[in-house]
Task: structure prediction
Amino acid sequence: TKKYDYLVVGSGLFGAVFAHEATKAGKKCLVIDKRDHAGGNIFCKEMEGINVHWYGAHIFHTNDKDIWDYVNQFAEFNRYTNSPIANYKGELYNLPFNMNTFYRLWGTKTPQEAKQKIEEQIKGLNITEPKNLEEQALKLVGPDIYEKLIKHYTEKQWGRKATELPAFIIRRLPVRFTYDNNYFNDKYQGIPVGGYNKIVEGLLKDIEVQLNTDFISRREEFESIADKIVFTGKIDEYYGFRFGELEYRSLRFETEVVDTENYQGNAVVNYTDSEPAYTRIIEHKHFEFGTQPKTVITKEYPLTSEKGAEPYYPVNNDNNGAILKRYQELASAEKNVIFGGRLAEYRYYDMHQVIGSALVKAKRELS
Ligand code: FDA
Result:
C-alpha cells in the first residue's frame, strides 16, 4: 500500500475542499502547490494590516444555503455588499445599471421615466440580429449607457474593438428599476472577517501541505506515493500540451501603499473610458471596513494571452473548445486521476461554484 490515499495537486479552493472532505472521511492526503503559499487565487497578503486580495478582488456570494453554511464553519462573514462605482471622464456612476445610474445620466426620477428613456434610446437603432458585441449592447441598453459604461471598458478588457467581438460575450445586461446598488442578486454575500486565508487554513488544518512543489517536474515520484491523484492544475499541462495550449486572458496588478487613510471611498472603482489604461482600482481595506492609517490600492490592467502570465479567464472560442474536448477524452478514461477546479476543467468558476463542484466530486469519490 502507498503512503497516501490522495495526492492533491493544488491548494486552491477545489483542492483544499477535496482534501478536507477526504481527511474527514479518514483518508490520508498530501496537498502540494507550486506557489509559495496555499489558497490558490483567493490568497490574501497582509500589507499595512490590510488583507490584500493578491490575485484580484474576491467577493463571496451565493444563493445556496448549504455552501454558505459550509464556508461559515471556517470564518465569520461581514456584511460587505459589492457596489462598484464607474468613473467615465471624471463623471461618477453607480453600477450595476439602476435608478441611481439613470438619474445621473438623464435626470430621470421614476422607474417609468427611466424605462421610457431607455426605450427611446433603443428605438430607431433598428438592430434585430446583433452581429457583434457593440450591436448586442446597443440593442439592450442604447447608446448613452453603451458609450459611457460599456464600450471602452470592454475594448480595454479584450484588447479588441467591440465591433470585432462576438455578441455572445454579453448575453444580458441587467438593468434595475430600483435605487439598489448591490451588484449581486444572491441571498448571501460578504467577505470573511480576517480574510480568505482563514478559510484556507481551516480547510487544510492538520493536513500535510508542501509548498514550492511542482507536480509536473516531479510527477513519477508523486505518482508513486499515492493511490489516486486529484489534479487542479491546467489540463493541457497535465497532458504535456500534446494537443496544443488552451488560451487564457490575464491581468497585471500594480499594488501600492498610499499614505492616506481613505483613497477612493469604495472598494471597487471601474475606469470606463479608454484612458487610463487600467480597468479598475481596488482599495482593499473597504472589503473589511478597515480603519488603518494607510491604505493599499491595486490598479488592474488587462493582459491578453501573454507568455508566462497567470491564466485567469478561459477564452471560450471554437478552437479552444475543440482542443479541450480532446483532453477531456483522455481525462475521462483515467482511473486514478480526478480533475477538478477552474484550470483542470478550463472553466470560469466563482468561489461558491468551485466549492459546490468539489463537494459533489468528493462525495461521489468517498461514498
Ligand atoms: P486556483 O487557481 O485557486 O488553485 C489552483 C492551484 O493549483 C494554484 O494554487 C496553483 O498554484 C496550483 N497548481 C497549478 N498547477 C500546479 C502544478 N503543476 N503543481 C503544483 N501546483 C499547481 N469568485 C467569486 O466567487 N467572487 C469573486 O469576486 C471572484 N473574483 C475573481 C477575480 C479574478 C481576477 C479571478 C481570476 C477569479 C475570481 N473569482 C471570484 C474566482 C475564484 O478565484 C475561483 O473560483 C477559485 O479561486 C478557483 O479555485 P481553484 O481551486 O479551482 O483554482
